[in-house]
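Hi Y.,

Following your request, here is the sequence exactly as I used it, all 240 residues.
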Amino acid sequence: MKVHIFIPCFVDQLYPTVGMNMVKVLEKAGCEVVYNPAQTCCGQPAFNAGFWGEAKEVCTKFITDFEGAKYIVTPSASCAGFVKNYFNRLFENSAYHQPAKKTSEKIHEFSSFLVNVLQVENLGAVLVGKATYHDSCAALRECGIREEPRKLLQQVQGLELIEMNETTTCCGFGGTFAVKFEPISIAMGEQKTQHAKDTGAEYLISTDMSCLMHIDGCIQHNHAGLKIMHLAEVLAGGWE
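Below is the corresponding structure, written out as tokens. Let me know if you'd prefer a different format.
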């Protein structure tokens, strides 16, 4: 199966190993991975900030970049959720409405693609220790993803998965929310960090590096002793 990958801005600029590990896992699952180096942003930051005209330009490029793809897979529920739910609205009553609709139907968040499309849950990964999982708002509310990451993590050899309290509560990042409402954002992040620490877990795992970056800042500030990991990093571990 040929799969085109979309690498979000966060991953490209700050956490490139997440993208590399996603490719490693997809190839192990039998996919032929295609990367278009001309790709840029999905357009979400500009859209969320209210700059719909500028967002439309970026989104038009996204549609063109992935025009020939049957499947688009990304290690970010946030980006996947934006393309799935808002491309139609952005291009309503325009010449790009149908291409936008087709693009929104082709994009898949990484864990959802593995479980629901490839129907793969056991990748032979190994991670010895205790972990807790953070549900990103985008995964839960934009993509309807909850069980897929857990099914994958439950198959990781040596890993004990422990649910934290208030697992569906936002971590406080929310893109520009963290900038505009910094005290509230920090308080929410610290609450999430404390819930994770209370489980006794060594690892905090999620599908979104934006959430994990914010939470990791709180972890480091409070010396909470947790290690953040993207799901792709976990699934790529323990095998060659």
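The chain has 13 helices and eight strands.

Thanks again,
Q.
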